[in-house]
Structure prediction request, 204 residues.
Amino acid sequence: MQPVQGDLARNRPGDAVRRKIRELQPNALRRLVDRWSRDSEIRSWADGLVGERVTGRNLARLKHHGWFTLHAVQWASGADIDHLVIGPAGVFTVNSKRHKGKVVWYGDYAITINGASTRHIAVSQAEARRVSQTLSRRCGFTVPVRPVISVVHAAKVIVKSAAPPVLVLPARDLGRILSGLTPTLPLDQVARVYEVARDPGTWA
Prediction:
């Protein structure tokens, strides 16, 4: 498989967040100080960066099972997909969420963090639909995409739904769960989707 110009396979987990942090504070020393400041916007971005790096390390285990992972896939708008995973069991958008020491509860349609409602499910579903439309158009065949939320450093993750529309998993379980899913995508389609997805022009 030949690399493409500007190959997204070279991206590291959290690269889009790193760019945002540098944009907010160009001075390296000030960035370091701001990461520990309670009221700093950079601190929240830095927490997100930790989450994406942890998720990325866990997704790397899938490589030995015939999977491909892309990180920080950026749309023309500047928004990005944290992680895009392509393998025998299909295509998955993986959104990293770091909720250190908190209780994450997932019912049928919503996630709460220590009892407070979030829009994590709706946002993840919308992202997966958009990615599916984009990949299907460029590949020339239908590419279903399933959303996943990777929960990092939570005290507890409770999933009440028996068949959740979004997979909500502790980051440490990503490799085991995804690699254990039933294969649905022929190997030639896995290769084609990966070829299309790693091309920056797909997302422009």
